[in-house]
Specification:
By secondary structure, this protein is mainly alpha-helical. It contains eleven helices and no strands. Helix 1 packs antiparallel against helix 7, helix 3 packs antiparallel against helix 4 and helix 9 packs antiparallel against helix 10. The protein is globular, with a radius of gyration of 16 Å.
Length: 200
């Protein structure tokens, strides 16, 4: 259980910097206005949290009681935003029992529907592994590149990290800094710190 929690906590740090939701939050939401407004606002608030280096779960946990029905309604309509939010809740046991398999399926479905932050999040799961999901650096790299090309800054930062540490790619300080700078330019504050650390 300790291993599961450490993986889950490490992965939660990823979501906390996912900026592509802001650009994407007005996408194919088409349910009742109150549900759509809640889902869109929660995704936007998550972005705000992440851009300031805060953990996404710190936002979702307190509002889950009031908002989880809207997220679930959106997921039931197979909307990628609701799928992603409910998947995160199941992975992190926010307002529900932890269900890693179901949470991963929902996040993967959101990724399959081209939600950039979900693509990057699923990439992180493949990079680190999770019970029921094997480490697959090649797949993580492909997912991060796809999300980065959709201007998802956290995926850019993870690409920098992979190059810095030689995870699934040849180690390259120059390529790492290139990706970290792109992430920082896109608003990822953790990437800004990583760049500062690189020059110490």
């Amino acid at each position: 259980m300790r291993c599961v929690l450490s993986v889950v906590l490490a992965i939660s740090g990823f979501v906390a910097t996912s900026g592509a939701l802001a650009a994407d939050r007005s996408t194919n939401i088409s349910g009742p206005p109150d549900v759509d407004a809640i889902v869109a606002a929660d995704l936007a608030k998550c972005i705000e949290y992440v851009r300031h280096g805060r953990n996404l779960c710190d936002y979702l946990r307190p509002v889950s009681g009031a908002h989880s029905k809207a997220w679930e309604d959106s997921a039931k309509r197979d909307q990628r935003e609701g799928l992603f939010l409910t998947g995160l809740c199941e992975i992190h046991a926010i307002g529900c029992e932890r269900n890693l398999a179901q949470g991963f399926r929902r996040c993967s479905r959101a990724a399959d529907k081209s939600l950039p932050c979900a693509i990057g999040y699923v990439g992180l799961i493949h990079m680190r592994g999770m019970p029921g999901v094997a480490v697959d650096h090649d797949r993580a790299l492909r997912l991060f590149l796809y999300a980065a090309n959709a201007n998802e800054p956290t995926s850019m930062r993870w690409l920098g990290s992979m190059h810095l540490r030689g995870i699934g790619v040849p180690q390259s300080d120059a390529e790492a800094l290139r990706w970290l700078r792109k992430a920082a330019d896109a608003g990822d504050t953790t990437a800004m710190v990583d760049i500062a650390d690189a020059y110490r």
